Amino acid sequence: MATPSEPARRGDEPPGRDPARDPSPPGEASRRLRRIEWDAITGVMMREVINFGAAWKQGVFASTVQPVVYLLAFGLGFGQLVHRVDGHDYIDYVSTGTVATAVLFSTAFNAMFGSFVKREFQRTYDAILSTPVDVEELVTAEVLWLAVRGGLFGSVPILVGIAFGLDPAWTTIFVPLVAMLTGFGFAASGTLISAVVGSIDDFSYVTSALFTPLFLVAGTFFPLTGLPLAFRILAELNPLHHCVELVRDCTFGDVDPTDLARVGALVLFAALMWWGAVDRTRRRLIA
Amino acid sequence: MTRTLPCVASALSVTALRKSFGSVHAVAGLDLDVPEGTCVGLLGPNGAGKSTTMRMLTGQTRPDSGEISVLGFRLPRESKQARAQMGVVPQLDNLDTTLSARDNLRIFARLYRVPAAERDAAVARGLEIARLTARADAVVTALSGGMRRRLLIARALLHGPRLLLLDEPTVGLDPQVRQELWAMIDGLRTEGTSILMTTHYIEEAERLADTVTIVAAGEAVDEGPPAELVARHAGREVREVYGPPARLEEVEGAARAAGFSTRRTGTSVAILGAEGAGDRLPEGETRASRLEDVFVKLTGEEVA
Ligand SMILES: Nc1ncnc2c1ncn2[C@@H]1O[C@H](COP(=O)(O)OP(=O)(O)OP(=O)(O)O)[C@@H](O)[C@H]1O
Ligand SMILES: [Mg+2]
Asked: Are residues B54 and B147 in the same domain?
C-alpha cells in the first residue's frame, strides 16, 4: 500500500485540482457529460477487445469450421440431388446463405450468455456502472462490438465459398456491412432476452423455439418460394431472411431496389432491439 | 453551467432517504452528511441498509423517496457527473477475473476518462498503490484475496476522485495490510478527499472516521465523533461482571434497576457509564468505554 507521503495521487492527478480548496472544478462545469459518449463506449469495448485477444482463435475456428460443415453436409450432400437453385450452383447458394447463420451464432448466442454472466455472476456490469458510464452506453458498446466481430466472422463463409468455386461480384464488399447490421440487431436481441429471462437455463427455450425456426426458415438451405403463403409472409418478418437475400444479391451481383427495403427492415430491427435491450437491461441492473 | 453549492460545503448529503424491496424496508428515512474533506463511517449490523445506501449514491439503485446530493449534483438525474468524480469500492469484488491486474486498471482509467496522455502514469501509480507492480501481468484469479482487495481500491483511485465510497474496504485482509490501508485512507483524507465508509470493524471506524453514523434497520440511530458518541452513550468507564448465566441475569437486573444500561458480551455483562458508581453496582473489572459498547447498545447486536 502506498502510504500518505507517497505520490498516491496528488500532484500529477489527472484533472489537476485540489478538492479541498476547489469544490467545483472548472473542467467539470465546461465538460458536461453527454448522454452517450464515445469515450464510454470505447472504454467498455476495450474490455472486450482485450478479452478477444485471448480468444480470437476459437472465434475464427468456429466461424470457419461451421460453414465448411454446412457446405460439406448440404452443398456436397444435397448437391448430388440438387444442382442448381434459383439459377445458382447449390454450393454457392449454401455458402452465401450460411453468412446469416454464422452471424446469428456469433452475435445472439454470445450476447445472451455473455451479458447474463457479466451481469449476474461476474458483476462486471455493476463495476462499469459505478464509473461515469450509463446503461445506454454499456449496452451500445457491447452490442456494437459483437456486431463488428460478427460482421467479420460472419463473412468467412464467403471466403470458404470462394475456395469451393464461388465467383463473387464486386458488390461482395458490402457483405461485411450487411453482416454487421444484422449482427447488431441479433446481438441486441440476445441482450434483451438475457435481461428478460429468469435463469440461464431458460436460454434453451429461446434457442429451440425462436432461433432454430428463424434460422431454418430464412432461405439458407432451400428457397422459400415453394412454401405456403403464410410461411412466405412470416419469412418477410425474419431478419435473417433479409440478411440471406442481401448477401446473395451482393455476391451474385444482382442488387435491386427491394434490397433497399431489406436494409430498411434490418435497420428497423436493429433499432427496436437496441431500444428494448437498453430498457430491459436498465430494469435488471438498476433496481 | 453554474452551480450553487450549499453554504456548508457537503461532499455528500442525503435527506429522508427510503428504499424498500417488497416488504423489506432496506433504507427507512436515512439522513446523512459528509462534509468536504472528512471521513464518515457508517456503522451498522448486517442488513442495516449500508450497501443499499452506497448503491443509491452512485445511481445504481433508485430511491423510493428522499433527496441525494453528491458533490453538488442532484441524484439520480446527474449521477453520471457525480460518478466521474467519485471512486467506489464495492463490498463484493467485481474485478475482471479473466484479465491481468494491469488490464483491469487500464480499462477503468478509460472509463473514468483519465486523459490518454496520463493513462499510463495513472495505471503505474495504481499498481504501486496496490503494491502489485511486480505482479502487474498476473491474471486476477491468480492473486490472493488481499491483493484483489488492494487492486479494487487502487482501481477506485485512478482518476483522483474527490469522494470515495468504501463498502467494507478491509474485509478479509490480514492485520498488517489493514493497517497499511488505514494509513492510505487517512492520507487521502488529509489531502482533502471526502470519504464515506462502511465497516464491521469498530476499531476501523474509531481510527479513521471523523464522525460515525450508527444505522439500524435503515435509519440513523445517532451520529457524532466517536469519542462524543462514547461519552454520550457509554460514559467514561464500563464495569464488566463475569459469571454463570444466572448470575449475569441477576447483575443485569440490578444494574438496570439502578438506572444503568448494560450489554451482554457472551460470558459477561458490561455496565455502561459506570464511573463513580462505586458499590451501587456489583463488583467487576473496570475498563474504559469503547465505541463497541455504543454500537451494541444502540443496535442491539453483538459484535463478532
Ligand atoms: N436487490 C435486492 N433485492 C431484495 N432485497 C434486497 C436487495 N438489496 C438489498 N436487499 C435487502 O435490503 C436489506 C439491506 O441490505 P444491505 O445490503 O443494504 O445491508 P448492509 O447494511 O449492507 O448489510 P451487510 O453489513 O451484511 O453488508 C437486506 O434485508 C437485504 O436483504
Ligand atoms: Mg453491505
From this structure: no
